[in-house]
Amino acid sequence: MDAKTEILQRIRTAQKQAGLPDHVEIPREYQTKGTLNAQELHEMLIDRLVDYKADVHEAAESELPQKIAEILQQRGCSDVRYAEGMDASLLEAFNAAGGHATPDSRESDPRELNDVDAVVTESHVSSAQTGTIVLEAGPLCGRRALSLVPDRHLVIVRPDQVVYGVPEMVSRINPDYPATWISGPSATSDIELSRVEGVHGPRDLIVLLVK
Fold this sequence. Notes:
Elements: H1 3-17, H2 38-51, E1 55-59, H3 64-74, E2 79-82, H4 92-96, E3 100-103, E4 118-122, E5 125-127, E6 132-136, H5 144-148, E7 152-157, E8 162-163, H6 166-171, E9 179-182, E10 187-189, E11 195-197, E12 204-210
């Protein structure tokens, strides 16, 4: 017999000699839902996002257009793309102030997104425990390239999209669609721990939390 078969046979023999069962049921009663209230989730998410070096802002739903315009203007943005299914009125204040925000076109070459100043998308679900924001490819979050190619990404997160942990977050994701998980701005480190930002996504992540 080969080495692998011999090792496994020895393990089974040792189990029998010790009186251990051949089959053990694996417990699956792990926590799948958090117990924190909305305010506690909100505060935890902010703490994690700041720790990840994301730029965090807050605004009421009615204040979103003005807040978006303010954030983009502060960064000198003029040419902006947003997910095609988003409410266009969210960018009206920005356009009225001289900006040029247009919906993304899935037929366009993704490489063209490298030339825009910023992109704006909605979010799908976020984990407060890990500070992870998930974008599910679709009209509100956009195609994957929309949030991966440009160097600046402004994402809107609403209260009902924030859950505690990863199991609950995963339960809200449709496996039939691509999903992008974002934990802070794009960054990586080589073997010498030299941090490099913006390699595989935006180096400037702006999170706008709706109060």
